[in-house]
Amino acid sequence: MLTTEMTTLASNKPPITEIVKSVKLLADPTRVKIILAIIKAKEDYCVTEIANEAGASQSATSHQLTRLEAHGILKSFRNGKMICYHLVDSPTTRQLRKIIRIFE
User: Fold this and answer.
1) What strands, in cross-sheet order, belong to the sheet with 82-87?
2) pTM (2 decimals)?
3) Would residue 80 be called left, alpha or beta, if left means φ above 0 and alpha means ψ between -120 and 50 degrees?
4) CB of 33 within 8 A of CB of 54?
5) Burial class of 34 by CB neighbour count within 10 A (0 to 12, 13 to 18, 19+)
6) Environment class of 2 (CB within 10 Å of its CB; exposed 0-12, middle 13-18, buried 19+)
7) If exposure means fewest CB atoms within 10 Å of the residue's CB, which of 25, 31, 73, 97 is most exposed?
8) Is CATH 1.10.260.40 what the domain over 28-102 is classified as, yes or no?
9) pLDDT in tens, 14-48
10) Where in the chain are the domains?
């Protein structure tokens, strides 16, 4: 019986690696500012607007946007000559929103 209970506990364990990856995304102030800017905008945001809101250069902003997109937090699309972003509705993004709300 004890072995069955231990197996059940192990299978219900949260994906620690995914949790750590998500929390690490918030370790960079520019990434947090980017996420906050897009949440506040409640609409798609282009790189220039995000950079202005985050107080970072377009180059630094683009670098962080690429990282956030690679982790499935943001999705990009082309709007004419501009690249715009929006938050992806995913479990990870919802958890990041909750974490950010704690500190607001």
Assistant:
1) 45-46, 82-87, 74-79
2) 0.77
3) left
4) yes
5) buried
6) exposed
7) 97
8) no
9) 678 877 877 888 899 999 999 989 988 878 889 99
10) 28-102
